Amino acid sequence: MGQEVRGVVSRRKGAPVEVTTIVVPDPGPGEAVVRVQSCGVCHTDLHYREGGINDDYPFLLGHEAAGIVEQVGEGVTDVAPGDFVVLNWRAVCGQCRACRRGRPWYCFNTHNAARKMTLTDGTELAPALGIGAFAEKTLVHAGQCTKVDPSARPAAVGLLGCGVMAGLGAAMNTGGVTRGDSVAVIGCGGGVGDAAVAGAALAGATTIIAVDTDSRKLDWARKFGATHTVNASDDDPVEAIRAATGGFGADVVIDAVGRPETWKQAFYARDLAGTVVLVGVPTPEMRIELPLLDVFGRGGALKSSWYGDCLPSRDFPMLTELYRQGRLDLDAFVTEEIALDQVEEAFTRMHHGDVLRSVVVFP
Description:
alpha/beta; Quinone Oxidoreductase, Chain A, domain 1; Rossmann fold; 2 domains; 7-stranded mixed β-sheet; 6-stranded parallel β-sheet; 26% helix
């Protein structure tokens, strides 16, 4: 039968988004309808609006969300109506070669809902990252719902659904940061870079170097645990990182920008046998060239981090508990709480670098 709710839709490339009525169908087998309580405004949503992901307009934007399960379809057993959940965009299948090898965070066959949300005229919507949570309610695969402690603040823990988890996981999961390590994070202007700083601190790194071109953003990084800061507009990041690590370079260097020049900085700013983690997303035309002897001679590991190599069923509840204990300050990522009809203005503030996260909060 379905329900009519309000949602934020992008109809064509570059056009301002609009709040309109959408139809959320009843859940089919393996699906769930979630009443959204909060949804962060992420750069990925802006990329959808600008046509940077694909051209499957119209898009139902929003994906960094938390809410309450309202309905479940046939065969759903892991969540039930009334559960407080954080939504994720990589519902693992449990059957592919990665899952069978015990590496479900690399799942090659992740799930989304099969039924489609639509406009009132029947036009099918493409939900951002298979979620579409700039809406009062959304339809997702049940595996995209991860139960967490219901006492947690939705606007804070919902951010685990994308950017904050990507940064935390880049340090803790992909980078394998551990006690006593030195870590450098290049690019601290958004939630991912600062979350990587926070993840390094949480994992026990003793030297954490934040690199950016904006002194205001370096001030943000200090609040998340950076012990050193480098303004790349004034100083060479590679030399500054080496200077802060006894001349050797950092054990782990995380590129949260995703450009050839920042990746090269990360490559040369790490210690011998150190690790480079790319978590910033490059664009298709970008290329990189390095002397192969440098790749061989420096050893170590060159890694890409997909969603912080997270396993939502493992990581979301654990990180929510650390938040509840006061050991992970997710509230610090929430710059402002806004209404559904303020998403377009939030895109502008995000584009100008004025916020870490604007979060849509539903009454």
